[in-house]
Amino acid sequence: MTIAVDNALTGPIRTRFTELFGIRHPIVQGGMQWVGRAELVAAVAEAGGLGMITALTQPTPEALAAEIARCREMTDRPFGVNLTMLPSINPPPYAEYRAVIVESGVPVVETAGSSPAEHMDDFKGAGIKVLHKCTSVGHALSAQRLGVNAVSIDGFECAGHPGEDDIPGLVLVPAAADALTIPFIASGGFADARGLVAALALGADGVNMGTRFLCTREAPVHEAVKERIVAADELDTELIFRPLRNTARVASNGVSREVVEILSAGGAFEDVRELVAGSRGRRVYELGDPEFGIWSVGLSQGLIRDIPSVRELIDRIVDEASGLVRGRLGGLLTD
Questions:
Q1: CA gap 98, 52 in Å, rounded
Q2: How far apart are CA 228 and CA 53, in angstroms?
Q3: Pick from 6, 58, 115, 188: most CB atoms within 10 A?
Q4: How far apart are CA 270 and CA 254, in angstroms?
Q5: Sign, CA torsion 95/247/274/252
Q6: How far, CA to CA in Å, does 239 sit from each of 37, 190, 247?
């Protein structure tokens, strides 16, 4: 892949992804439950990245419409909406959320969880570009056949649901590059310029970051949670729901360790339902008590040492990535 870098230190790095989605830098803030709100998304857009409002953070489709409007008051640059579809006894009204996305005229939707097949006609008919999150090459190829515009390849390092194959990005990303023809971004373990340059070298067209954006000044979570991430290292996560084959990577705390212990001893989901309730995770972000419930964080927390503004973070990553390409890597070449 050719990486074109402007002379300005923070000039854009152009890839197929930036060209397709009309953004300045190949950096995406993926959807995060309770976190993907207008203030964070607008800050990412203003800094040249692509931010995602998390649809199901909003309690109703009408609330999502209001959040999209609020984001538009903060930025006139492109941003998207994440719509995550997971099996549920009482599923959200996905069709109504989809209708709001279409009617609001957002240019991008990030789908995740189940196949986006049932939504594709409406999104494509409205000219909305679809970015689908995948945890395997097979899933990515299926999404490509459905007609999505791009995919996000999530390695085992990521927060949330990394799939059941346990393939890290160092292998998964180049495997995807060999198989796909559409643009794709790499997700899981990315927090700085080194990760961006590595992802591009492995064949990706950009990176998706969740945990790193969670630890920025604009992220709408309690400061104590951000300080917990800064203090943590790459060992401070737990993989819950492994025996149920619904693995999720979350912060290591008393609650997550108890969940692992119960399920490893043969417990059922009903035995941990109250411990993993989403309402408790939301209160972690609101109260600033990292021990109150389950909350998502990736291995990249081991690379996070500060709480910058979104613009400071994105400018730093692009600046340092340019320096790596021009300097250290270029200097390795000899006549």
A1: 15
A2: 24
A3: 188
A4: 18
A5: negative
A6: 26, 19, 6
Q: To which H or E segment does residue 152 belong?
A: strand 150-154
Write out the H or E segment, with its range, that includes residue 207: strand 207-209
- Cβ neighbours of residue 169 closer than 8 Å, sequence gap 6 or more: 153, 155, 156, 157, 186, 187, 188, 189, 199, 202
List all residues 6 or more positions away from 14 whose beta carbon is below 8 Å from its beta carbon.
Answer: 3, 4
Distances in Å between the Cα of 23 and the Cα atoms of 19, 44, 73 are 7, 10, 18
Domain spans of the chain?
A: 4-220+307-328, 233-296
Burial class (CB in 10 A: 0-12, 13-18, 19+), 187: buried
pLDDT tens string 197-256:
999 999 999 999 999 999 999 999 999 999 999 999 999 999 999 999 999 999 999 999
pLDDT tens per residue across span 127-180: 999 999 999 999 999 999 999 999 999 999 999 999 999 999 999 999 999 999
Total residues found in the chain within this entry:
335
Helix intervals (H) in 48-113: 61-74, 94-104
- Helix ranges (DSSP H) in 75-167: 94-104, 117-125, 137-146
Q: How crowded is residue 242: how many other Cβ atoms within 10 Å of its Cβ?
A: 14
Contact call for residues 272 and 262 (beta carbons, < 8 A): yes
User: Tokens in use for 106?
Assistant: 């957002």
- Other CB atoms closer than 10 Å to residue 126's CB: what's the count? 16
What the block records as the tokens of 317 is 């990553």
Q: E strand or H helix at 250, and its extent?
A: strand 248-251
pTM for this model (two decimals): 0.94
Token pair belonging to 148: 């999505």
264's tokens: 């490893």
Q: What tokens were used for 50?
A: 């692509």
Helix (H, G, I), strand (E, B) or coil at 300: helix
Is 5 strand, coil or helix?
strand
Residue 309 and residue 234 in contact, taking contact as beta carbons nearer than 8 Å:
no
